[in-house]
Amino acid sequence: MTALTADQIARVKATAPVLAEHGANITKHFYKRMFAHHPELKNLFNQAHQQSGGQPEALARAVYAYAANIDNLGVLGGAVTHIANKHASLNIRAEHYPIVGENLLASISEVLGDAVDPATLDAWAAAYGQLAGILIGAEQNLYDGAAWSGFRPFVVMRKEMESDEITSFYLKPSDGGKVCDFTPGQYVSVKRFVKAIGVDQPRQYTLSDAPNGQWLRISVKRERPANVPAGHISNGLHDGVEAGSIVEVSAPMGEFTLDRAKTTPVVLISGGVGITPMVSMLASLAGEGSARPVAFVHACRHGRVHAFRQWVNEIVAARPNVSRTVFYEAAGGEDRQGVDFDLVGRMDLSKVAGKVLLPDADYYVCGPVEFMRAQQQALIASGVDAARIHTEVFGSGGLE
């Protein structure tokens, strides 16, 4: 990989404010242009994020961050790790990068016009080559360590409703091969053909059980309405996939993972379907007979959408080192305080500080973005070191 010259670095860094202003227009143009020239790549990209604008906006933020930190790429290490895992889960390969680069550079030129001169465009070509090299290397390392390459057919062993919204699917390789190990918190991509838009679509789902050598389990929230891209896959799984069905699954990936080597306390904080990695982590700790203090803190709207309620209660009853706190935003008449839930209202960690502010604890937070932001801010305000707070972001993000 050829290092950028001082002039190239200066030119890329100088364009950061322009990208901040026009980045969304550039990236929207980029996706439209790339899909027009390479429609086969629609199979790799979540079309729901395309329609909502989420993916173009995420790419715009990432390109800006790269430009602004072109002289100090070390600060982007976490973002590179995040996106490399996402890409490896989607089976994005080195041969895709020249296509992306060609269309991104053309889009910068076509949107900005005379505002970008040839020398600056050449600097961006060099910068893109540098970034592509970093990501290709990181992704190759993940592929080298993956349980299998690309997508593999799995058969659905069984299907279980966990709540009114969430259904679990138990999966095993259709060829009768071994079920792989993984680290609690990791996810897989599931690929399904969507007739309504005429392309395969991948969606990433956290593995919601401990590694056990018998199955991989995903627990899928039904997205509504069903006739928009955001609901195509989840509704297709809920309504069209039964025991015996075959689904295409990628190898486990993801960096939001439980550090199993530690002996210090663990605090698992989730909102809604963000409970899935926490269940995997708790199941792993319980299955290993860990004596680590564990605080399981969850928030959801009410009992009908409270997944894994009985299972968590059984773990808490059996293991004195595990505590449970559940917030219901609006408890229903059938919801039992002290049994199904503990507190009414949105999650407020200050109300359970004695349970969650544990010495040297690691905090794992998963749920909607605003939920995670609020819990992270609350923890930091309570004196928790930000380095001990780990969050999982669903959907587009990082350098995508």
Structural notes for this entry:
- Residues 149-259 form the FAD-binding FR-type domain.
- One of its GO terms (molecular function) is oxygen binding.
- It catalyses: 2 nitric oxide + NADPH + 2 O2 = 2 nitrate + NADP(+) + H(+); 2 nitric oxide + NADH + 2 O2 = 2 nitrate + NAD(+) + H(+).
- The protein has 400 residues and is an alpha/beta fold.
- The strands form two sheets. A six-stranded antiparallel beta sheet has the order 4-3-6-1-2-5, covered by helices on one side. A six-stranded parallel beta sheet has the order 10-9-8-7-11-12, sandwiched between helices.
- It folds into three domains: 6-145, Globin-like (Orthogonal Bundle); 151-250, Elongation Factor Tu (Ef-tu), domain 3 (Beta Barrel); 266-392, 3-Layer(aba) Sandwich (Rossmann fold), CATH 3.40.50.80.
- Mean pLDDT is 92; it is low at 395-400.
- Helix 6 (97-112) packs antiparallel against helix 7 (118-145).
- The radius of gyration is 22 Å and the shape is globular.
- The chain has twelve helices and twelve strands.
- A hairpin with a 4-residue loop joins strand 1 and strand 2 (166-173).
Q: Would you identify the regions where 5 or more consecutive residues have pLDDT less than 50?
A: 395-400
Instruction: Tell me how many strands there are.
Output: 12
Name the average pLDDT.
92
**Helix amount, in percent?**
40-55%
What is the CATH third-level topology name of the largest domain? Globin-like
Question: Order of strands across the widest beta sheet?
Answer: 4-3-6-1-2-5
H/E element sequence: HHHHHHHEEEEEHEEHEHEEHEHE
Rg, rounded, reads 22 Å
Indicate the CATH architecture of the largest domain.
Answer: Orthogonal Bundle
User: How much of the residues is beta strand, in percent?
Assistant: 15-25%
CATH C-level of the largest domain: Mainly Alpha
Number of helices: 12
End-to-end separation:
21 Å
Number of domains: 3
Q: Summarize the biggest pleated sheet.
A: 6 strands, antiparallel
* Net shape: globular
Please identify the structural class as seen in this structure: alpha/beta
Query: What's the CATH superfamily of the largest domain, by name?
Result: Globins
